[in-house]
Amino acid sequence: MAAPGQNLAVVVHRAGDLRLENHPIPEPGPNEVLLRMHSVGICGSDVHYWQHGRIGDFVVKDPMVLGHEASGTVVKVGSGVTHLKPGDRVAIEPGVPREMDEFCKTGRYNLSPAIFFCATPPDNGNLCRYYKHNASYCYKLPDNVTFEEGALIEPLSVGIHACKRAGVTLGSKVFVSGSGPIGLVNVLVAKMMGAAAVVITDFTIQVKNETPQEVASKVESLLGCMPEITVECTGVQACIQAGIYATRSGGTLVLVGLGPEMVTVPIVNAAVREVDIRGIFRYCNTWPVAIALLASKRINVKPLVTHRFPLEKALEAFETTKRGEGVKVMLKCDPSDQNP
Q1: What is the pLDDT of residues 205-258, one digit of tens each?
Q2: Residue 144 CB: number of other CB atoms within 10 A?
Q3: What's the sign of the alpha-carbon dihedral 119, 123, 124, 126?
Q4: What is d(CA 79, CA 283) in angstroms, rounded to the nearest whole number?
Q5: CA pair distance 67, 83, nearest whole angstrom
Q6: Cα separation, 315 vs 309, whole angstroms
Q7: ∠ CA 111-194-71, rounded to 5°
Q8: Helix residue spans in the chain (DSSP H)
Q9: How many Cα atoms occupy the beta-carbon half-sphere of 185 within 13 Å?
């Protein structure tokens, strides 16, 4: 155990104000575990809170520890924890229901309005040396799954949840809009779920000044048909419009990316062609699925990590992410183990 005060944390105070601070090492409650953090990925939302101090209705009012794509090692267990022990390597699901409400009862706990979620105001995240978390939302990693893969289960879960909501199945033709980390995991998951062909903007389709209709026709010519499924990962108005125009009649458009609250879309075009528009909010019940996929080597997320920084260089890591360099920037929180 580190000496008191050796819990370095990355904290946003307000828009533009990001600091490295020492926090006390927390004590786990009866149903919690204390973790020595290992790998934490930087998400676009972390950068957004740093740059803007808010995302929609979630406003940084008090200093908040960032980070929610994470894995670590159990160092202490609460009195009620039986399935984990010190030394266990775990991946952390950042969303924990605070009460057993109607959404939890139906298995859609991600929709619970009372949910705790790492690095969403006012809840602290886990971009620090030591962090305590509800033990039920810490999942043991098999020996052949690395800490970084464990941290990447969080973005991978978005892809799993989106592709399930979209109904991707054997032979599906899929259009993914946006090739950031979330777009890329959706490609990985769609192919693993049986998609016969996937096109993605910025890779298979370069979008410059085309209209949404022109983008849609590019997708159709590349696939040889209109896709039954579109997964929109940008939140940009023109991309949502292109997603509607591109999707085959009777198909499904899943909105993953979040942009402005109000967007103008060709809703009548979608309505008369019976294009189903579905939203997703994070994920639920995905960690066991993701761990099984990683352990069986059905999915390889390792190439997503393009940059690694020690926790002490977190500010440099955030600047790198802000500049849009690479794909996934990973922070290494354990000074004694900087391995993947």
Answers
A1: 888 999 999 999 999 999 999 999 999 999 999 999 999 999 999 999 999 999
A2: 10
A3: negative
A4: 29
A5: 25
A6: 10
A7: 50
A8: 44-52, 102-105, 147-166, 181-192, 212-223, 237-246, 267-272, 287-295, 314-322
A9: 26
**Of the candidates 103, 128, 108, which has an alpha carbon nearest to the alpha carbon of residue 118?**
128
Positive/negative CA dihedral, 45, 50, 56, 61: positive
Question: What is the bridge-based pairing of β-strands 69-77 and 64-65?
Answer: unpaired
Residue reference for tokens 């939203």: 279
Residue 317 CB contacts under 8 Å (≥ 6 apart), including other chains: 42, 307, 309, 329, 331
- CA dist 150 and 236 (Å) reads 29
pLDDT in tens, 107-166: 999 999 999 999 999 999 999 999 999 999 999 999 999 999 999 999 999 999 999 999
The whole-angstrom separation of Cα 197 and Cα 178 is 16
- The secondary structure of residue 33, as a DSSP letter, is E
